[in-house]
Amino acid sequence: MATLMARLLFFTWLILPFCGTEKVRQRALRQRDAEYIERYNGCMQGPAGTPGRDGNPGVNGIPGTPGFPGRDGLKGEKGECVRESFEEPWKPNFKQCAWKSLNYGIDLGKIAECTFTKMRTDSALRVVFSGSLRLKCKNACCQRWYFTFNGAECTGPLPIEAIIYLDQGSPEFNSTINIHRTSSVEGLCEGIHAGLVDVAVWVGICPDYPHGDASTGWNSVSRVIIEELPK
């Protein structure tokens, strides 16, 4: 027991000087730091440093989750039906037949004919006859000039015609006077199929009236013009 106590006393005697020395050293360091702070605390702040470079772009984030479905919109107005057309653009299609001097003195029958190629079924034909016409008679008479298509008059919508009517006249007026006038007969006809079409000009009678002495194309040029038109 005496030996143990002697060892503890000896160990304490060795350690105490070191502990005191360490405390003195720490106190000196704290005092030196305080003096340094007091000395340099009143100095002016230096200029700012150069800004640093931009960093590298970050990687893409994780995709977000889908949002909630939106509300139903208001009911729209009723639309219009538009029919698309894939047909080729319309191209002009016309023809002219001309005669220098027909001098047809017939009262009933075909005067002239012109063949035309119609390109489409859903189109119309415009026809024109231009030439000299005459009618004379001693009593009241009427004469009719008209078109036919493949031998039949137009039914879409109505015949294409022109008439000349002469009254009986009076004793003071010579009803047999012979006057030739350049006139025209023209119109549109629908419902004619595509292909070759024989277009003809005829002279005939008027219903309920006698015919007279007719003349067509005297001493002048007569012509038939045919043109296909879109509907």
Explain what the structure shows.
The protein is α+β, with helices and mostly antiparallel strands and 231 residues long. The protein folds into 2 domains: 1-39; 93-230, Jelly Rolls. It is built from 1 helix and 9 strands, in the order H-E-E-E-E-E-E-E-E-E. The chain has one helix at 2-40, and strands at 93-99, 109-118, 123-136, 141-149, 161-166, 181-189, 195-205, 213-216, 222-230. The strands form 2 sheets. Strands 1, 3, 6, 8 and 9 form a 5-stranded antiparallel sheet that branches. The longest helix is centred in the N-terminal third of the chain and has 39 residues, at 2-40. It is rod-shaped, with a radius of gyration of 60 Å. The protein starts with a helix and ends with a strand. 16% of the residues are buried. The model has no long low-confidence stretch (mean pLDDT 83).
